[in-house]
Predict the 3D structure of the following.
Amino acid sequence: MAAACNLLDAGRQVTLIEKRPYLGGRAFSFTDRETGQEVDNGQHIFLGCCTYYIDFLKKLGTFRQAHLQSKMLVKVLSPGHIAGQLSTAPLPKPLHLLPSFLTYRHLGLKDKALALYALTRIALTNRSNPALSTETFGHWLKKHHQTQRSIDNFWNIIVKPCVNDDVSNVTAAMAMMVFQEGMMKTRHGSSIGYSKVGLSALMGQAAQEYIQRYGGQLITGRAVLALQADNSGIKGVELAGGETIRGDVYISALPFDDLAPLLPPELERAPYFASLRGLATAPIVNIHLWYNKQIMHEDFAAFVDSPLQWVFNKSSILGQNGAGGQYITISLSGAFEYINQPKEVLQQTFVEAMAQAFPKAKLAKVERILVVKQEKATFRCLPGSERLRPKAETPIENLFLAGEWTDTGWPSTMESAVRSGVAAAQAVVSRSNG
């Protein structure tokens, strides 16, 4: 979507092909048949440092339908009803994080001192050091005296939802990027934003209107079967049904594991594309619950010492608090232990976890549960993965790549997706002008 919109802005003629009947990729919403509620396929958030994504929403005219905190404020709860808080203060960076961290109730004094030491080291580290792309952040943290409690109750609360993986798996470079860009660079970089409407209204429908308004063509509900090529480059896109769409330049925004099978065999085996097989994916599980009464006051909260990770009060976020009951979403990142569990087991586990975390949930009736699994939600920032992420330009003169898995310098986020689309559009314009 970002690539198409930016190419239209540059005066190019664009045809966008989408397999589904709607735009949005892995960020869309649908109507739950039982409740009539519009449900996001996954709870997506963005941060104040996601400047490309924020600009994209402004381009589409939908930023007013999103909420961005004026400062970071995250309540961190435990089943024992101990409430901690991470927030920013009106102090010069990086001191803006210090007051709430010193009073954070889920770490002891020794762990706080050691975590401040590690944060200082992160602030002073050049994350482009190649060694940090081959070392896990968990290993780096252990080298810098972080305890398992500190990892569970602080570091993973931030890293896991941002990178969709545990600190024991992600590279030190990518985890440091999260802290440097999100928490240390500016006072507002860590402010949390979310959509106040369904994701399809915020992005997919708005992008479709933008593309059509500026003369772009849309082909939806049609799968791409193959990219046709010869020695001079890509010659066409073969669609289900036998039609072939031809253009001068082609951008693939497919996931990396969907792109390879569409290439001619000789291109799929070429080193540039063969290296994509080294990338891996991580799952996300979202559990949607409808209670018959209000059980949660916060818009969202993070959790420690619980199967819960982040819980979102969707009734409040969507402005539906007066409806009597309450709609809640539980977001589980890096959900390797849950992705293959039967939905009935997940429902029991997390209804019980909610009852332990929220006293009012024990007295409320769960009227509806919906489990949404995304097995390949994001790519994984594993050691060695950075060198496998390709630039927008490919060895094929008229083929370019977009997607959050390409070399944006960001983890698998909406920000990375938009950055990749902008980079692909700029590469197309630059090459054609050159």
Q: What stands out?
A: The longest helix spans residues 414-433. The two ends are 24 Å apart (CA to CA). The chain has a mean pLDDT of 94. The first strand starts at residue 15 and ends at 18.
